Amino acid sequence: MKNVTTYKNKKVLVLGLALSGVNAAKLLHKLGALVTVNDYKSFEDNTEAQELLEDGMRVVTGGHPVELLDEDFEFVVKNPGIMYNNPIVAKAMEKGIPVLTEVQLAYEVAQCPIVGITGTNGKTTTTTMIADLLNSKQQRGKAYVAGNIGTPASLVVQDVADEDAIIMELSSFQLLGTTTFKPHIAVITNIYSAHLDYHGTREEYVAAKMQITKNQTEEDYLVVNWDQPELRELALASKATVIPFSRQEMVENGVFLSGETIYYLNEPIMNKKDILVPGEHNLENAMAAIAVAKLMGQETPVIKEVLASFAGVKHRTQFVRDYKGRKFYNDSKATNTLATINALNGFTQPVILVAGGLDRGNDFDDLVPHLKQVKGLIVYGETAAKLTQAGEEAGVPSIVTVQNVEAAVPVAYDMSEEGDVVLLSPACASWNQYRSFEVRGDAFIDAIEQLIANIEEGE
Q: Start and end of every Mur ligase central domain (predicted)?
């Protein structure tokens, strides 16, 4: 970790705790800042605030009093989830106080190269692929995963060495709070409309994503999805060396698909069918990861070996089990129709689809054309009736309503035959029945194991 003096003896307000806030506060404290921590949760129920108080930091809990800003703070470091229209954040910006996220802090003290990955979809899978590719058969150094993927960057940077690398998943929320942040390699997987409740407009959302390349120079690299015309246009504004990846055309200076073979520059890397995780979206994720791995010096045989065995990130078209010829996949992270469409398009086999969850008021008309290979649809939750209607319109032969994901698994097995895929891809958020998509996905996996145990016990 670099010994920076930017924050030494400076008054810094850390706004919002959770993992990123706690670790930002600890890093600032280590850098000699005079840290005040402010969290909405009451002190009695706030173990993070209690811990930071014991570490010698000032703690204010139970709300976000705007009056705090009368104390002449020089910086505010906010939790990415706190919106910019929050009164205390808005007041700080009005007073000209820099409002940062912990990603900016991490960058300032990092002493190894950073690979930053952003985009609307595919960030976590691409981040994980890159780390696996760089860590396989490496003789020196380690690739550490950090950021939006779950481990705060401000924690990871404290332990890395010069020969290491940080593979950082970055949300638009995190990038919006950066000033000098500059990854050596930036990756933009794709751009669609998202988080407009936070950013206000699509233009603001896209601008936040483009923060990833704002400070890059020609010595840095921008790996970008060339199949999106908007990203081609946006890449023109970057000073970095652009490395395109494309499924649709041969690109001279990047990764492309020709026939069934993936190439980097003019070097054949692997057959696309050898990539274990299904779907065109995962092909794009793999192409982005290949570009980074080659830029970082990884050998082609290692790239092919890793991607041929990469089973996916948990809850993201994750391969779970092959039992009696049925392949079970957990795609609980699919909380919208686009994600479910991507998952379905990854299979050529007949699919038993398990879908449902929270009703956000949308219909499922866009899902209908993609249900053609679905032989059985099992629906649950608040959206069961809407999904049933979509299935009937698509001509799905068998549609069953069940109470929840756990009840869907044995029904799906009974519907299926050898060679079929059983896919949980809900197209809905989980919150009406499950605390998170992770809890929902774990329930699906547990139900599969219970099903197998019951079948084998009865044989």
A: 117-293
